[in-house]
Amino acid sequence: MSEYVEHSPSGTSVGRVEKQFFTFAADEPLLVESGRSLGPVTLAYETYGRLNASATNAVLVLHALTGDSHAAGYYETSDSKPGWWDLMIGPGKPLDTDRYFIICSNVVGGCMGTTGPASVDPATGRPYGLSFPVITVGDMVQAQKCLIDHLGVGRLLSVVGGSMGGMQVLEWSVRYPDMVRSAVPLATTTKHSALAIAFNEVARQAIMADPAWNGGDYYDGEQPAHGLAVARMIGHITYLSDEAMRQKFDRRLQDRCEISFAFEEADFQVESYLRYQGQKFVDRFDANSFLYVTKAADYFNLESSHGCGSAVAAFAKAQCRFLVASFSSDWLYPTYQSRAMVQAMKKNGLDVSFVELEAKWGHDAFLLPNARLSGMIARFLDRAAADAAKEDARAL
Amino acid sequence: MSEYVEHSPSGTSVGRVEKQFFTFAADEPLLVESGRSLGPVTLAYETYGRLNASATNAVLVLHALTGDSHAAGYYETSDSKPGWWDLMIGPGKPLDTDRYFIICSNVVGGCMGTTGPASVDPATGRPYGLSFPVITVGDMVQAQKCLIDHLGVGRLLSVVGGSMGGMQVLEWSVRYPDMVRSAVPLATTTKHSALAIAFNEVARQAIMADPAWNGGDYYDGEQPAHGLAVARMIGHITYLSDEAMRQKFDRRLQDRCEISFAFEEADFQVESYLRYQGQKFVDRFDANSFLYVTKAADYFNLESSHGCGSAVAAFAKAQCRFLVASFSSDWLYPTYQSRAMVQAMKKNGLDVSFVELEAKWGHDAFLLPNARLSGMIARFLDRAAADAAKEDARAL
């Protein structure tokens, strides 16, 4: 099949979708990596397309730091925006819902329907706050596996995600190798660098410096909005790039002809953009969840958790085919980090395709239209589906 | 003379030095670029070496964002550290105090002895706070010129500085071309990029988000220490580089063998380093001054203020010889920005030496030992001094 060689980035929408919930670990709590336990756990998730009879067409999409289960379509016809990866998921799109059954769930520790620090602790009847156990990427994946089992999928056709979603992809590939036929880690890393940790740490300090944060116990009052906004602004700088910012903003002024010689109002468009992003984020995200997901990303180290410090040893556990993509202007997870993981995969004889995509938009590029990436993902899934069909045929 | 070809980075110390003060603009206030006026103005400054009889050996050193007038030597024998550029200034060092008369003054708007927002407004008897006029790099340089006049120097042998100090160097070269024989802008830019503005804006927002900031009116109580610490942490990330952080910290843990699975204590050395830098800064720097100096850096645009938007037109006003240096891992003011300024200088037929120095330590590299940079600066000043001597001889 070569229908995707001339892949059109358009496709159509999956249309109206609904957030679903799966609750588990009520009787037997989930043991998390810190040694603590958590239960019951509810995962918010969405599915698009239909699971086929042999349950071989399921693709798990994994979201980034502050993403959610709403990857495609819309909840209400009045929604101003579709799900966060709508350009990639839908009929005729790379994650083709006419062919694949797409699953996306919100991570544990998040605040978009999945159990996290803002959830009520059944033991106390009050929100967990900081008593919520610190979560790792491994814990997120462990919870996702419960959902995949529940949905009756024995082996995923693919696991796909960028940034912290890509970390989950990597974790899936070595934690549950039998369950993963192919994997697409995008704009990601096998371990958070000191630079990436540094940005997250400053963002956390901004939240924790806000008196309203109150040691994480703020759910009866106002949330630490100032600190969370600053944290988000820091994040947004890392999602762009020097060149992206120059092209998008340069030194253009915001709604004024002259600099203000004052501090209250934004002079430059880039300042106005960051303030707006900070404010917008406060309305949709929980400050404690931000602490938890950034900590999970910082703790992520596939090499130490699965390979005693060696990436080669870690990927010795993987069995799937990989498509790895980095973006030339991504300075949060630069290409050299993807190259290192690709080398470690290859040393294990794994089937790996790797591409560094020329993109000026920095780390966020994986969320933006990119015909080359779309085509590569479409063809990659097509190959994985062909393999699955062959195996199905042999099994019959 | 070639005594510096085999330049040793050692040299000796200038020894004990004293902060001095120069007050002016008492009767006739300084008119600043915003259109407001300021007076009286006190500049804190230090000098090292002796001004020669013909006053041709004066070198003005210009400090970066949060620097001060204490560039070399020590105040007390018990001081744990010398001035911030002690490795460059002293007998036998590149800025050789046996030959040159070195002057360094704290910028207007600062908080190290020079008039700034923490100073008392004579009109009210209370600290200026935000009623202090917003200051530009041009204003800083205008005030420095008053000091240079006062010291009896008609023409500076050289103006030398890195980062925001480099901006002042560039400003000097086009604002007072008759007074500048040579100029050494290091790790700097003719205009702040959107990325650089973005980092400063987030730092300012961190300060202004701190309730203790109180609209800049906090001098009767505690200063906004939490916000200022976060602002400084952001700054410190930009002063390093991905590679520098990897070499300096990587993922090494701080005083522990295992990650903590908690938020209060630092897990990683890089977190501990940033927290320490933030705390240390709070003890020595005023939060409002941080707002003022970052704003001055953001507003800096030599091209618009001196060339109607053209760097070539701006440098048409310059007459001096330049030594421009950038650092390969500096992503705050990357080399392409230095290259652009060098091209604009060359289009005006100016005598320009340019070097991109291989350095892994990011933007801060200009403050660190670098034998190649030291040698280049020494030789460059030597040439300028030779020129000055020739002119002196002709004038006799």
UniProtKB/TrEMBL annotation, chains A, B:
Protein name listed in UniProt: Homoserine O-acetyltransferase
Species assigned in the record: Solidesulfovibrio aerotolerans
Enzyme Commission identifier(s): 2.3.1.31
Gene name per UniProt: metXA
GO biological process: homoserine metabolic process; methionine biosynthetic process
Function: Transfers an acetyl group from acetyl-CoA to L-homoserine, forming acetyl-L-homoserine.
Active site: S163, D330, H363
GO molecular function: homoserine O-acetyltransferase activity
Matches recorded under HAMAP family: MetX_acyltransf (MF_00296)
Residues engaged in binding substrate: R232, D364
Broad class of where this protein is predominantly found: cytoplasm
Keyword Transferase: yes
The protein's enzyme class: transferase
Protein family membership: Belongs to the AB hydrolase superfamily. MetX family.
Recorded metabolic or biological pathway in which this protein acts: Amino-acid biosynthesis; L-methionine biosynthesis via de novo pathway; O-acetyl-L-homoserine from L-homoserine: step 1/1
Subcellular location: Cytoplasm
